[in-house]
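User: Hi! I have a protein structure encoded as tokens and I'd like to know what sequence might fold into it. I'm fairly new to this, so please keep things simple.
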């Protein structure tokens, strides 16, 4: 039954490919991958023709390779990250199985697969999906190597760490170091810190980083005249190996946002649904047991998951720049902590007096989530989403009937949690997000251009936000911005906002398409209420020169 729920979660990842890509990050990375493939420049990275210095190239390499085989489309962009989601789930299971029973290992995989964050990062694809896969693969392989001493495990761990470094930088090395470092210290196994094989790992990792380092050096270090982040002489190598990660802690990085310690935990409260309460209980239990045993663990015990999560969280939380998805890198470790707690609460029944209160609490939370779904289904986009009632009502009935069955292979709370998350995310993927994305300017405009067979070369942008990269991606074309629209040749097209439309000679143009734009990743309550929405959106127009 656990495998069935894992399969349902993976199926929903694929269903979510129905959602168009969202501005800013997912579309930006997809468009960078498109440009990389188009211009065959794989060591130097450009974003809409401009030098790009932020993320390492792994996501762009793999996504452009996928686009080479499957075409320029959002599914091709998402496909490599989907494979890394599968790798994360499998590696979490295999890592947990090294230390715990098969049932706890399966629960670990289920917790990760059915968490809200996994549904999110399989359609709003950023670097974190790949990073998660590389990191938990490296931790699993290192743990296996410490047990078996097989060279294949050491080699795979080296490849995984290098892959993570090429995906999002030093954090891919920091997480395994913190995980195993805390584990060995608590075991008083100090000899584990001094093994000659680490030198080989370092050499292998360095070799894997050479292509990226050459690209950074040629693109930035050899060109001190380039201006990046409002500065001249920015070193690509220094930015990658230091500023991008550690500079956020030291203050050297100019990026500052969400810099309070509990920001990531606040976002875990929804990102790790429906298992967040069991995670908190499991974390407290592990810390309590450690204190009882005088800050020491036996050779047979495992602190890799708990130590890896806690210390990584602290490193990330003291950064001056945080985003909700930064903590996802250790969600596989959090899943192992949670699985132990679930097993203790629901299967071993070690806390019989708490079972009923815990179930009631979760039933209330899940009921509120279902009510929120019904509100979203009924109010914001009624014409596009109310059809989902035909799916939601039978699914909820099946779920409720399953809860009252006398014989179940899984505890009721596990069935309830995974069932509710599947129904809610099915609604988001199949109805809500597709309706919402019609307010992302580039989605309806790119469709209009294709349906009406308009040559993209004849379309120009005027006072359009630079974040509208999905227009480039969905038309496989790099649109040009202009400053003098009145001088356009006849029968050419101009895409502009109301501000731009008010500043041109209206007699020279005729309206071909009109829409309303909204930054869909920053939802607000007024936007979701149809009567208040016009005050929240920005009108835009596709005009044709007479």
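Assistant: Happy to help. Inverse folding works backwards from shape to sequence: for each of the 546 positions I chose a residue that suits the local structure. Here it is:
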């Amino acid at each position: 039954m656990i495998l069935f729920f894992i399969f349902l979660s993976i199926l929903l990842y694929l269903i979510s490919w129905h959602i168009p890509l969202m501005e800013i990050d997912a579309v930006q990375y997809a468009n960078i991958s498109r440009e990389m493939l188009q211009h065959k420049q794989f060591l130097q990275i450009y974003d809409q023709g401009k030098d790009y210095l932020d993320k390492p190239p792994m996501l762009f390499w793999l996504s452009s390779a996928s686009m080479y085989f499957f075409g320029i489309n959002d599914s091709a962009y998402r496909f490599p990250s989907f494979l890394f989601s599968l790798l994360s789930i499998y590696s979490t299971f295999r890592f947990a199985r090294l230390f715990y029973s098969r049932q706890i290992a399966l629960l670990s995989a289920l917790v990760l697969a059915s968490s809200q964050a996994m549904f999110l990062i399989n359609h709003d694809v950023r670097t974190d999906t790949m990073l998660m896969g590389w990191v938990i693969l490296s931790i699993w392989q290192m743990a296996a190597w410490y047990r078996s001493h097989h060279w294949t495990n050491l080699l795979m761990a080296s490849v995984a760490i290098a892959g993570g470094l090429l995906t999002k930088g030093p954090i891919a090395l920091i997480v395994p170091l913190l995980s195993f470092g805390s584990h060995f210290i608590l075991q008083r196994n100090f000899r584990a810190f001094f093994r000659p094989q680490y030198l080989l790992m370092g050499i292998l990792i360095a070799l894997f980083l050479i292509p990226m380092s050459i690209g950074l050096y040629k693109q930035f270090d050899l060109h001190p005249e380039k201006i990046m982040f409002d500065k001249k002489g920015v070193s690509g190598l220094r930015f990658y190996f230091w500023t991008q990660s550690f500079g956020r802690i030291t203050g050297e990085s100019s990026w500052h946002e969400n810099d309070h310690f509990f920001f990531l935990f606040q976002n875990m409260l929804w990102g790790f649904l429906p298992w967040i309460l069991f995670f908190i209980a499991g974390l407290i239990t592990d810390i309590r047991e450690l204190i009882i045993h005088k800050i020491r663990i036996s050779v047979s015990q495992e602190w890799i998951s708990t130590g890896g999560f806690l210390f990584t969280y602290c490193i990330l939380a003291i950064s001056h720049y945080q985003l909700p998805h930064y903590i996802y890198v250790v969600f596989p470790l959090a899943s192992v902590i949670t699985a132990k707690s679930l097993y203790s609460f629901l299967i071993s029944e070690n806390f019989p007096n708490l079972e009923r209160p815990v179930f009631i609490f979760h039933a209330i939370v899940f009921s509120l989530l279902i009510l929120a779904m019904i509100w979203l289904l009924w109010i914001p986009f009624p014409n596009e989403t109310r059809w989902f009632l035909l799916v939601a009502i039978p699914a909820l009935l099946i779920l409720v009937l399953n809860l009252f069955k006398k014989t179940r292979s899984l505890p009721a709370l596990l069935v309830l949690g995974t069932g509710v998350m599947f129904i809610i995310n099915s609604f988001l993927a199949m109805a809500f997000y597709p309706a919402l994305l019609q307010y992302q300017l580039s989605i309806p405009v790119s469709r209009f251009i294709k349906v009406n067979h308009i040559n993209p070369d004849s379309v120009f942008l005027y006072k359009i936000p630079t974040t509208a990269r999905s227009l480039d991606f969905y038309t496989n074309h790099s649109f040009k911005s202009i400053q003098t629209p009145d001088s356009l040749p006849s029968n050419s097209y101009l895409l502009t906002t109301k501000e731009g439309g008010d500043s041109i000679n209206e007699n020279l143009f005729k309206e071909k398409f009109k829409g309303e734009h909204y930054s869909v990743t920053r939802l607000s309550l007024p936007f979701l209420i149809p009567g208040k929405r016009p005050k929240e959106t920005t009108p835009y127009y596709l005009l044709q020169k007479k």
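A useful reference point when you look it over: Residues 145 and 151 are 7 Å apart (CA to CA). Feel free to ask if any position seems puzzling.
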